[in-house]
Structures are given as C-alpha cells and as structure tokens.
Design a protein that fits this description.
Belongs to the EamA transporter family. It is found in: Cell membrane. This is DMT family transporter. The protein is 73% helix and 2% strand. The longest helix is centred in the N-terminal third of the chain and has 29 residues, at 3-31. It has a two-stranded antiparallel sheet. It has a domain at 37-218 and 279-318. The chain is mainly α and 319 residues long. It is built from 14 helices and 2 strands.
C-alpha cells in the first residue's frame, strides 16, 4: 500500500478505533457507571483530564516554539462546544435513558445524528446528494433499528418513553451541531489546544453540580467497579477517544465522520459478548451486516467535502 493510500486510510481506522473504545465504554457503564449521578460522573470525567491535557498542550507548543494564540470567536466556539458536549450530549444522554431505554438511545440519541448532519450539510452545500448517500444513510439507520429491535426492551416509541425520546432526539441535534462546529476548528488549530479548551469548558460547566450533589459519604458509597468505570471513561473513552475523533474529523469532514456513529451498536454488542458474555442475536448479525454495507457506500461517496478557510488572527486570545 502506498504512503498516500495509507494516509487516506488512517482517519477511517481512527474512527473504527474510537467506536471500539466507545463500545467498550458502554459495557463499562453497564458494570459500574450506574452508581454515579450523570452530572457528577461527567463533571469528574472532564475535570480529571484537565491537568494531563494542559501539560501535554504546553510541551506540544514549547517543543515547536509556538505561542498559544486563538481568535476570540473561535475561542468562544470551542468553549461553547465543550459545554454542549459535556452538558447537552453526555449528561443529557444518561438523563434521557432514565425515561427511555438503551435501544431508543441507540436509534434516537445517536442514530439520527448522521441524518441531521447530512440535512445541515446539504442545506449549507457542504456535500451534494448522491445515490450512495440516499441509499447508505437510510440503510444504516434501518440496520441500527434491526440491531436493537430483537428481544425485550427493543426499540419502540410510546407514551412510556416519550419524554426520554424527545430528549434523545435533542441529543442527536446537538451532536450534529458539535460535529459541524468542531469541523470548522480542527483545520485551523492544533488538536491538543482544542481538546484542552473543550474539556476545560465542559468541566467548568459541570463542576458546580459535583460540589452540590457529592460529598464524602457519596464518594465512599462508590464501589471499586464504579471508580474503574470512571477511570476508563476519562482516560480512554474521553481523552484518547475524543483526540482521535477530532483528528479524524478534520480529515473526513462532519458528514462522513457522523456516519461512523452507526458502528456503536456493533462495537457495544461485541464488547458485551466478550466482557459480559452476552449473546449476539440474529437481529444483531443482520443489522451489523447492513451497517457495514452502509458504511462502505457512504465512505466511498465522492461528494464534495467541506472547504476550510483560515481567517486572519484578529481579536485573538493569547493563553
């Protein structure tokens, strides 16, 4: 394989790795994450990464003799995306699942995100509609529904899940906004700076809830399994996962990146099979084959990618 082909393949492999990490995280959350309040869990998750991320960012800039400099509008954007991610996506997902179920979460909370992303991308002329997109996105969404429809607690919409389902759809909209917003930044600034700012803003938004809800007795009641879940989510699913995610995002664009979200039900099912010894049903096998076919169609699409522009560094913030 030539160097050029390898470089083109790397962001695709990056997204596969990301969704393997996030699939394992679903199992981790099943094992220990339910012990935590969503706001406390995510507040600690984001805050625990801040020292590591900023130390790495400092040495990244120092080794290259660079100065941390970011336009004010981009600084506000990345901080807003950090708050959106921490509060509007991660915490909202855990909260919504209290009123719905995991199957609806996979379809409505994540499955609709690529659909919304492609609608926005088409409206802003970032991509053009092709037959691969017209076939691939509905096929992927339908396949996810097949995956989660088998057995008890499968995908369904009714009065008993309505409140949670609305919140899950809101989460998909926020996810699409996050992808498109971050896609504007990853080609302009070094990734360590963006991740550090994003996580810091997310932590700042959630830490007040940590101080309000959690005390010594709260932490003492968390088992070793619960702490392990927090460590895995912080180190691997968050710090490593979002770093690879946003690096790959800058090379594929928001639309093609969002389509990889359909891999999560597959990687989550595989993680449950190997770690929790859960069974894999015929529904999951059929749906998984459909998702992989859809991924092939979407990623082979030759539609126009987003065009990045780099403005002059006026009204900048120096850190």
């Amino acid at each position: 394989m030539s160097t050029s082909s390898s470089q083109k393949l790397l962001p695709h492999l990056g997204f596969v790795l990301v969704y393997v990490l996030w699939g394992i995280n679903m199992t981790s959350m099943k094992i220990g994450g339910t012990e935590w309040d969503p706001l406390v869990f995510n507040g600690l998750r984001f805050a625990s990464m801040i020292p590591i991320l900023w130390v790495y960012t400092y040495f990244y800039y120092r080794s290259r003799s660079l100065q941390i400099d970011i336009q004010l509008k981009d600084f506000l954007l990345v901080c807003g995306l950090g708050i959106l991610n921490a509060v509007g996506m991660e915490s909202l997902l855990q909260y919504a699942l209290q009123f719905s179920n995991a199957a609806n979460g996979a379809v409505l909370g994540r499955g609709f995100m690529p659909v919304i992303t492609v609608i926005i991308a088409l409206a802003t002329r970032q991509v053009k509609l092709t037959w691969r997109i017209m076939v691939g996105i509905p096929l992927a969404l339908g396949s996810v529904i097949v995956i989660v429809s088998g057995g008890a607690g499968g995908f369904h919409i009714g009065a008993d899940t309505f409140r949670g389902d609305i919140l899950l759809l809101m989460r998909s909209v926020m996810g699409a906004v996050y992808l498109i917003g971050m896609n504007r930044l990853v080609s302009k600034y070094p990734l360590p700076l963006l991740i550090s700012l994003e996580m810091t803003a997310g932590a700042a938004a959630l830490l007040p809830f940590v101080f309000y809800y959690a005390d010594t007795s709260y932490f003492a009641a968390i088992s070793k399994t619960g702490w392990f879940s927090l460590i895995y989510t912080s180190m691997f699913a968050t710090a490593l996962g979002f770093s690879i995610h946003n690096w790959s995002l800058g090379r594929l664009g928001a639309f093609k990146s969002s389509a990889y979200g359909y891999l999560l039900p597959i990687t989550a099912a595989l993680a449950g099979f190997f770690v929790l010894h859960e069974s894999i049903s015929l529904y999951q096998c059929i749906g998984g084959a459909g998702v992989l076919t859809a991924m092939y169609l979407v990623q082979r699409d030759r539609g126009r990618s987003p065009v990045h522009t780099t403005g002059a560094a006026t009204n900048s913030v120096k850190l």
